[in-house]
């Protein structure tokens, strides 16, 4: 995974009006390495809570729909 800078991600979170919990999950998920579970562990929330936050993130970036792939679609967009 290409690791993006936390500052860039915070700017994008502000631009797309992410909530504080969404920003926390978004910044950790895209600036770090590993799975969604790893991100949840790093920010001390459950996996389902992290999934819920990221669902809101994808929605605000207009990456809707069911199934996998939104993480990588948003990553390509950010890069």
Q: Explain this structure to me?
A:
This protein is an all-alpha fold and 79 residues long. It is built from five helices and no strands. It has helices spanning 6-15, 20-31, 36-42, 47-60, 70-78. Helix 1 packs antiparallel against helix 2, helix 2 packs across helix 4 and helix 3 (36-42) crosses helix 4. It is globular and about 25 Å long.
Observed structural traits:
79 residues; mainly alpha
Strand content: under 5%
SSE-based structural type = mainly alpha
End-to-end C-alpha gap: 11 Å
Question: What level of helicity do the residues show?
Answer: 55-70%
What's the number of helices?
5
Give the helix/strand layout.
Blueprint: H1 6-15, H2 20-31, H3 36-42, H4 47-60, H5 70-78
Helix pairs in contact: 1-2, 2-4, 3-4
